[in-house]
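Re: the request from the purification team.
They wanted to know what the chain is likely to look like in 3D before they choose a buffer screen. I agreed to run a prediction and write the result into the notebook, where they can find it.
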Amino acid sequence: MDMEVAGWLVAAIAVYLTGLSKAGLGGVFGGLAVPLIAMFVSPRDAAAFMLPILIAIDLFGLRAWKGQASLVDLKHLLPAAALGIGLGTLIFGVLSENAVKAFVGLIAVTFALHRLVIRIQRHFQATHAQAPIVQPPRSLWAWLSGGVSGITSTLAHAGSPPIQAYLITRGLTKETYVATTVYYFTAVNLFKVPFYFSLGLFQWDIFVSSLYMLPLVPIGVWSGMRLMKMIPEALFFSLATLLLGLSGVKLLVDAWM
């Protein structure tokens, strides 16, 4: 994949932070990689570059959270996500380069704003702490969340916000919540592979570039497991939100120009 030195450095940082985030920081850097890398290559190439890396990270997560996911939620979410991936593939195939860049930028900005809202909600809940109540799954809400997640995940690997919005309302334990997201995105990322092939996104040079970055995956995962107890989550949240928002704005400006 043809990038300048600064692009490779940003890509390496994005891969490392993605592994670190998924392992121990609640996904605060989720959706950050593609908008950052898309400042140096096309959004399509950035998405294809990240998919093998995300699958590798997911496989690490499966071992850590084996058997702890909410199967009833996955039963509702995954079929909807499959439909969303199909729709996202159509969007990828028909939109122009600038339109895709604008779409990815919009996703990034929306994701950053979503993170701010979640942070405010958590602060409010902390000041009005009460035991969580597990709510029954709502099929319509689950299908809507899974479908939107499938679309945004296909375009920019940024499918977390709709899933988080759904799972937060369920009142699950932290362990079940994290395990469910790990299982969900493992299935979603694997399901995207044939669709990416159908779009011609997987070029040999892009795949080789992904392989170069794979050694950063276990390093990021290991770092996340160690740092989660040492560094305040608020600091990582602030940095992730800032970087994601700025990269989204940059993509929107580039698309407009």
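For the purification team: The chain has a mean pLDDT of 80.
Please add any questions underneath this entry.
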